[in-house]
């Protein structure tokens, strides 16, 4: 059971890293999902060769990039008559280094952990406040059965608790929060 929980934690922590790497290569959802599955399968096959846990994010990014290039090359061969993607240009446009991508994934994981530690009603409030398009306060009030005047102060309490969450504090202490709350 512990192995399953450890695997689930790895997937939750690094899935956004793999996904963002696929997005930098402009893969559609289906191809990105296929690449992700290939990367996770390769990790299962090679997990014993990764000696330093700190090397895992770099390994995931490198493996994901290779899979993205493989998928793009395969697609360009299938569409010989169409404009062929310049894989080197796409790779050059992926200006984020493995370290930057890892930090972004760490920030997302820490924020997700902090948000899930909030009471369910506060989680709902924060989800509605950050929805795109924005949910009007009147609708939030109605759906959550709280006074409109309570939304702002409750939001402030939520943000304060998120800022004090240990996962967020670790990021701030390590300098990993460099991009700010919206970075």
Structural write-up:
With 183 residues, the chain is mostly helical. It has nine helices and no strands. The protein has helices at 2-24, 29-46, 56-78, 87-93, 98-116, 120-129, 137-144, 148-164, 166-174. Residues 80-84 and 177-183 have low confidence and may be disordered.
Concise description?
Helices cover 73% and strands 0% of the residues.
Query: Percent helix among the residues?
Result: over 70%
In quaternary terms, these chains amount to: single chain
Q: Please, how many helices?
A: 9
Q: How widely separated are the two ends?
A: 35 Å
Uncertain stretches of 5 or more adjacent residues:
80-84, 177-183
How large a portion of the residues is in β-strands, by DSSP E?
Answer: under 5%
Quick one: overall form? globular
**Based on DSSP secondary structure assignment, what is the total number of beta strands?**
0
| Rg over CA atoms | 20 Å
Structural class: mainly alpha
How much is the average pLDDT?
Answer: 80
Major β-sheet profile: none
Strand and helix order: HHHHHHHHH
List keywords for this structure.
disordered C terminus, mainly alpha, 9 helices, 183 residues
List the helices and strands and how they pair.
Layout: H1 2-24, H2 29-46, H3 56-78, H4 87-93, H5 98-116, H6 120-129, H7 137-144, H8 148-164, H9 166-174
